[in-house]
Records
---
Amino acid sequence: MTDAITLSDTGFHFGVKDAPLKLTVITNLACPHCSAFFDNYETELLPAIENKQLELVLKPFDKPKEGLLKGNLVHLFLDYKDQAKTNPIILQLFKDQAEWKQLTDNEIKTYLSENYGLTAQPDNTDYSLTITQEAVSFDATSVPTALLSRKGAAPVKVTQEELKKELETLAVK
């Protein structure tokens, strides 16, 4: 089954596509563990991205779990076609997660519109279906699920600790 070892291009890309390492994170913007995963973005991931050693791809996963439903709502507003605008917003939404998660669904829609100029994106349902299929293929039963591909090889699940070690070896080179 070759489908299980490939990932589509669907997602939010940070860094260059031909980086030797590609980190794909199946995530949900309402997940506190996902937010914590990016706490060290500036110190651990960003240097590798800026040095063209790492491409980060975030795949917002609409997971049918009560605590993640507000994230699923936010995902509808993310603009896949304007990643230069959307990528920094995603990182900010992780930082402000505790704040916006307290809002009602209608308040979240207003918050996204007023603070970030985001509107619901009609194509996002198709993107969501693609990402859900990939999450199932990689047995991503929880978020975040990190998949690391080295030099174009098939992606494999990694823990945050394994990722940290991998990034440390890059920094030494």
---
Amino acid sequence: MTTKYSIECWILAPDQRILLLQVPARPGKHEAFWQPVTGGIEVGESSQEAVLREISEETGLRLAPDDVLEIATGLDVVISPDLTVSKTLYLARTPIPDIVTNPDEHQDHRWTEPERVPEALHWDSNRETWVMIQKHLAPTGTDHGA
């Protein structure tokens, strides 16, 4: 079995909306669907380097290392009997909600109210990580997010 390593990053705007990116349909494979920033970790790259690179490539945002917070690592998603994706999950905050999507990867984007995020997502694995992000964002008395 092959394991590929990737990042998934949920980006939070100042007004608390969440960025979703729309992957275009691939005839015979899948319909268009919404997801957070995702991408592979390249050889020799740390997960933090990968998340900053993917954010820049997919949104045009140039965030600093302090703008991203690692939430979890080693989140395995079995794609097939021969392939597992092991994700590192991040939360990022941006002071600027103006983004430019990369047309080679995404056909649209939207800032989504948190309560509307689950219904927009295509993949169960994204819904599961969204639950983790929500728990992190929920006020606990001492921790109010990233």
---
Amino acid sequence: MADAYVQVTTTTDSRAEAAELARSAVSDRLAACAQLVGPIASTYWWEGRIESAEEWMVVFKTTVDRFDELASLITDEHSYDTPEIIATPVVAGSLDYLTWVAEQTGPPEPDPEEA
């Protein structure tokens, strides 16, 4: 069961953008949870030079089935030309937590008042 889950990470240059990405993903049920970590110090190659920047990391908890849509949302809403989008498989985890992730990223339950 655990192989159906991933943690997806991205980084951005502001807490506000990180929070907006987190809210959009959770609101659209592409992630059950998104955590902001930061600020962090990043050092990387960009356009032939070594750069350093303060960034914020967002860690999304989701299912493999929702990864492509989550990656598209990050790409579409992110301010970077080439945003980090890395999915790390969940090898093991609490059955109760993983069940919750699956429930939160699945289709919404129908509203009985609208039936």
---
Amino acid sequence: MIKKITALMFLFGCLAVKAQQPGEDNLGAWYMYFGTNKVSERFSIHTEAQVRLYETTSNFNQLLLRTGLNYHINPDAIATMGYGYIGTDNTYYEFPEEVDSKEHRIFEQFILKNKVWEFFFEHRYRLEQRFLDLGDVTDTQHRARYRLQMTLPLTDTFFLNFYDELFINLQDDLFGQNRLYGAVGVNITENSSLQIGYMRNQFANTVYDRLQVAVFFNPDLQGWFKKH
């Protein structure tokens, strides 16, 4: 009888843990790399890699790999089409039976830039077609994103960066998520920089706090492509 009661208590405890939201009370981290490499006067290649953790240095959440081809209409307007792969561990807790989800994503994007006084603004409009593999089922979803970013140079080396990005689902519930971000940045060289900041990622029923460390490396490859 005691063994049965103990087993039931253990089972209810596991179910209670599993019912909790996946790690919203923990400070997680995103470690990111972004590259924009010009290959001609009008075209550049976008590369991106992100490792997202439920905690600052452990507990894997997501791997995101993304690339795209940019067409520079002018210095302040860029059109992009690209592809992303996303592998996700959907739970903060580890369960033997869990199946990680995979996503193949196609996106179309348009960026507009402008300057007001000392502030540099960037408007990013993005459409995404998401092909989801959830283990036992597959799904196709569509969504739109709009990001307003503002950068304020402090010196030739240091700057502040802020953005707010809204995700809109084009099926089911309209609101997807909202990301509010602020960071301190440093220009390492003419073509590279580092940002360290904080992001508040709000979903319909939960909010995640994330440390963000981002490296930007944008060498001009036009000379290399001309030689080859």
